[in-house]
């Protein structure tokens, strides 16, 4: 079975290196959003695969044609991010709007502030693509794929950090169907980097449930 990985906002395909190494999956497909100069590479396979998304990368997955996907795994993921009338636990849209307005003047500053909040273990280098980054923030403000997530039922699995500074436990749980397989673990917003062994173990357990 192929694995498809989709990174989150302001990262790139290198985000997945620790987890891919832990999973030892030679057929891993690392999609690229194009936030740091590399051209976007977002083609999904025309054969069976498991899709694994981190944060906004999982939100993006839910909006795609997933006809060949056999199961979804969300790591620090969600089906909706921004607060709304029927989603009171979401992140206030004004926070995302402020980030978007600052991007054109100080893209490196916005990214540095975001990464400092996430507390990443490794730095990201490259020239920020403001257009792609703005598009990503717009998705976080506007996309709501809770209905799409609900259709996956027990074929959706999620792992979230109980100490995630960006994604409160209530937001993560409210995003996904009751039948989904999920758990909270001690950790922040970058579980695939900070806890690749734990993530690999969770993915293996999720696949066992799909078998």
Topology:
Elements: E1 2-6, H1 17-23, E2 29-30, E3 49-54, H2 56-62, E4 69-75, H3 93-103, H4 107-118, H5 130-142, H6 146-152, E5 156-161, H7 169-175, E6 181-185, H8 191-194, H9 196-210
Parallel strand pairs: 1-2, 1-3, 3-4, 4-5, 5-6
Helix pairs in contact: 1-9, 3-5
Search tags:
Rossmann fold, 6 strands, 211 residues, alpha/beta, six-stranded parallel sheet
Characterize the structure shown:
By secondary structure, the protein is an alpha/beta fold. It has one domain: Alpha/Beta hydrolase fold, catalytic domain (Rossmann fold). It contains nine helices and six strands. Helix 1 (17-23) crosses helix 9 (196-210). The radius of gyration is 16 Å and the shape is globular. 38% of the residues are buried.
How would you sum up this structure in a few lines?
The protein is of the alpha/beta class and 211 residues long.
What's the CATH class label?
Answer: Alpha Beta
Widest β-sheet, arrangement of strands: 2-1-3-4-5-6
CATH fold category name:
Rossmann fold
Largest sheet: 6 strands, parallel
The low-confidence parts are: none
The count of strands amounts to 6
Please compute the radius of gyration using only Cα atoms. Answer: 16 Å
CATH superfamily: Alpha/Beta hydrolase fold, catalytic domain
**Mean model confidence by pLDDT:** 92
Proportion in helices: 25-40%
SSE succession: EHEEHEHHHHEHEHH
The CATH architecture classification is 3-Layer(aba) Sandwich
Query: Whole-Å distance between the termini?
Result: 12 Å
Number of helices: 9
Shape designation? globular
β-strand percent reads 5-15%
Label the structural class: alpha/beta
Count of domain modules = 1
């Amino acid at each position: 079975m192929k694995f498809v990985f989709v990174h989150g906002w302001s990262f790139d395909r290198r985000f997945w290196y620790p987890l891919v190494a832990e999973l030892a999956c030679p057929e891993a497909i690392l999609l690229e959003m194009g936030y740091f100069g590399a051209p976007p590479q977002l083609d999904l396979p025309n054969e069976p695969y498991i899709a694994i998304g981190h944060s906004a990368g999982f939100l993006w997955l839910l909006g795609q044609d997933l006809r060949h996907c056999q199961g979804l795994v969300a790591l620090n993921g969600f089906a909706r991010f921004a607060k709304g009338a029927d989603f009171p636990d979401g992140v206030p849209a004004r926070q995302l709007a402020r980030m978007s307005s600052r991007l054109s003047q100080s893209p490196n500053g916005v990214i540095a502030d975001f990464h400092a909040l996430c507390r990443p273990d490794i730095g990201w280098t490259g020239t920020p693509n403001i257009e792609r980054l703005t598009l990503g923030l717009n998705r976080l403000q506007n996309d709501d794929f809770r209905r799409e997530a609900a259709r996956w039922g027990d074929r959706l699995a999620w792992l979230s950090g109980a100490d995630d500074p960006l994604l409160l436990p209530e937001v993560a749980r409210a995003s996904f169907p009751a039948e989904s397989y999920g758990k909270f673990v001690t950790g922040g917003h970058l579980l695939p980097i900070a806890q690749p062994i734990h993530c690999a173990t969770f993915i293996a357990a999720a696949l066992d449930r799909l078998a």
